[in-house]
Amino acid sequence: MRLTPLIGLMLLAQGCTFDEHLPEVDLHGTVILPAAAATRTVINSTTGELEEVTDARFIGPVYLGAFASVNSNDFPFPHPEIGPVIGGDQDGNTYPYGGGTVGRFDFACFEDLACRVSTGRFNDFEDIIDFFGNVLNDPVVDEYGNIVDSPDYFRSYCYELLDYTADYEMAFISNADRDHDGNITEVENTLHFELNETTGNFEAEFDLWQTTFYPNMKIWGWMDAPSEQFTFSTCDPDRGQRNTRYSNDYYYGANYTDLLNYPNKYIFENDYVAGADNDSSPSVGDHADADAYRAANPEIIVNLNTRVE
Asked: What letter would DSSP give residue 153?
């Protein structure tokens, strides 16, 4: 009986190092977008002249998934292999093994911004005000039709509406003091895309958690480019939390739920997709199983280099 505690500790230690040999893997990699994907022709708010602007804030949500294969035969753009069409007008399901996003829609407090703001694109409230007001010439307005031009008003409105007390609680704010030490470090900033000065492309890291592993599966994705009104085809304005505060009656908006199953429903002109070649939609390799993949830990780079015409 005296040995029981010791045996228990030994079993506990073994349990901490036990390999479950799970068939799911966590995929980590880099997604690359050409500068053209973040470039728009806008009217300069000062001069009134048309000018071409390249700005990471133009980059819409990026959707990535793991698929059996990718081809260019089924649609006018590279697209994952689809399953059989079983009646109706719906195209076949892609049956993804897993997926994720680089940036997701987050409600930025005003109805005017529903389905228009993604995480990882804006530093702070002033950044949003500047982009919509000075770059797009479409200032943010509140529920009374008043232009929102004060970061302090923006912040206080969000705090009251969402019952928040700090900027870091709002996912659409990237530059926030997340460890509460009074300073904001580069590590705490959650902006996704950075310009690679050497290549001229925008790059961001991604994670596709708990993806079911299959040898040679392909990583493919696309960027939902904003319309001229800076809206997105992948956001459903009739989903999400509903605001019925005072005279308000609208939804915050949220992603559609079948984006990776039926990408072709949401991909339109000016979106950027990964090509079918292995340099654009890389294969994870012919590793025997998930354990072999984890041991190899290959580099994954996805190039969203094909503009949809």
From this structure: H
